[in-house]
UniProtKB/TrEMBL annotation:
Keyword Oxidoreductase (UniProt): yes
Protein name as it appears in the record: Acyl-CoA dehydrogenase family protein
Sequence ranges assigned to domain Acyl-CoA dehydrogenase/oxidase C-terminal in this UniProt record: 257-384
Record keywords, A-Z: FAD, Flavoprotein, Oxidoreductase
Length: 397
């Protein structure tokens, strides 16, 4: 592994940071979160037009830039620094790779160019509590995580003799599910003997689709409730295809992407705390000069740097260069972000404990991501199981 960045990667990061500095400050962030969509469409259009960010990791043959997935993951460090409220995670990290991996030629040709130019956003509709399981981050990905059509799931049924499909059910906690133009819906099909999970393409405005925005702990990750009432849908890919391998690959890359996002957020939270402590005074001295405070900040810095190294390796490995370690990197990055945000809140003193302070957005990002894609101890436990670190041995008595 070459740890240095290429000239292209450096340019992507520099350009993206400059754009976000101008277009996504604290006031712009809060204004975007208060909109019905939960993000700024103008910022999303700028990211697509100026950087091609939605299609950065998609093949040039489908309108994308053709960069390796690691470039998109590294760009996530910059979006994480400012907690940019965009549909990048839902569209380009969770939905687009599944369309690319499973879709027919016609489906790819119809959908991917529109995702690349930013005119189509997408969301992966999996029951919120089962998202980490579906992506094989906290378990093997088997079992009826799609819900089987009961509360919190969707049932797929044949629509007459024409070979089409209809969906019925409800999914909650869908990232950008309330605003995405395209839904990739995981649904349970077949009876007990032929039970299986399939993925379907559903237009966000299709008849029978009812969507509402939900209140989320982390407002920078807007979530929606989706109700499907006998909606006519299109199967993603060919019937009989096992969707589990594609979900596992998407999950590993999503973990690397989220890890890079988290270390970007952690680094920025630490920077803001250091800046504040260089100005705040107590007992006639700058607080940042106290040795105890410096020790605490040094511990956070070491933890963030270790998480950054793990995230970079996971991003490189997700491009097919090494083993899948996204879950481990995500666990380390989420711990670093939670630590950096918590220390920032405390070291900002009385102002840090006010709900309106920006430090709380970073803390809620760490907690929200752990609820959706973790928790940390399960990310590590699944990685240990997959590696066979704690295999049981039979002991003769």
């Amino acid at each position: 592994m070459d740890p240095s960045f290429t000239a292209e990667q450096d340019e992507i990061r520099r350009t993206l940071r400059e754009l976000l500095r101008r277009r996504c400050g604290p006031e712009e962030l809060r204004t975007a979160l208060a909109t019905p969509a939960g993000h700024d469409p103008a910022l999303w259009a700028a990211l697509a037009e100026q950087l091609g960010l939605p299609g950065l990791a998609l093949p040039a043959g489908h309108g994308g830039v053709g960069c390796p997935p690691s470039d998109l993951a590294l760009a996530a460090e910059e979006t994480g620094r400012v907690l940019a409220p965009t549909p990048l995670l839902a569209t380009s990290v969770l939905a687009a790779p599944l369309i690319l991996a499973l879709g027919t030629d016609a489906q790819r040709a119809r959908l991917l160019p529109r995702i690349t130019d930013g005119t189509l956003t997408a969301a992966l509709a999996v029951p919120g509590p089962a998202l980490a399981t579906a992506l094989t981050l906290t378990g093997p990905g088997d079992g009826d995580w799609a819900g089987g059509g009961r509360a919190g799931g969707v049932q797929a049924r044949r629509a007459g003799d024409g070979g089409g499909w209809r969906l019925y059910g409800e999914v909650v906690q869908v990232l950008d599910g309330h605003s995405a133009g395209l839904l990739v819906v995981a649904a349970h099909a077949g009876g007990f003997a032929r039970s299986r999970t399939l993925l379907f393409l559903v237009a966000g405005d299709a008849p029978g689709v009812v969507r509402t925005r939900q209140t989320a702990l982390d407002a920078t990750r807007p979530q929606g409730r989706i109700q499907l009432r006998e909606v006519e849908v299109e199967l993603l890919g060919e019937e009989g295809t096992d969707v589990s391998p594609a979900l596992a690959r998407a999950g590993d890359f999503a973990a690397a992407f989220l890890a890079c996002e988290a270390v970007g957020a952690a680094g920025r939270a630490l920077e803001r705390t250091v800046e504040y402590l260089g100005q705040r005074e107590q007992f006639g001295r700058v607080v940042g000069s106290f040795q105890a405070v410096q020790h605490r900040l040094a511990d956070v810095y070491v933890q963030v740097q270790a998480a950054r190294s793990a995230a970079y390796y996971a991003a490189w490995a997700a491009s097919g260069q090494g083993e899948r370690v996204g879950g481990l990197a995500l666990a380390q990055a989420l711990e670093a972000l939670r630590r950096a945000a918590a220390e920032g809140i405390q070291l900002h003193g009385g102002i840090g404990f006010t709900w309106e302070h920006e430090a709380h957005l970073y803390f809620k990002r760490a907690a929200g991501d752990e609820l959706l894609f973790g928790p940390v101890h399960r990310l590590r436990a699944h990685a240990a199981d997959a590696a066979g670190l704690f295999e049981r041995t039979e002991v003769a008595v």
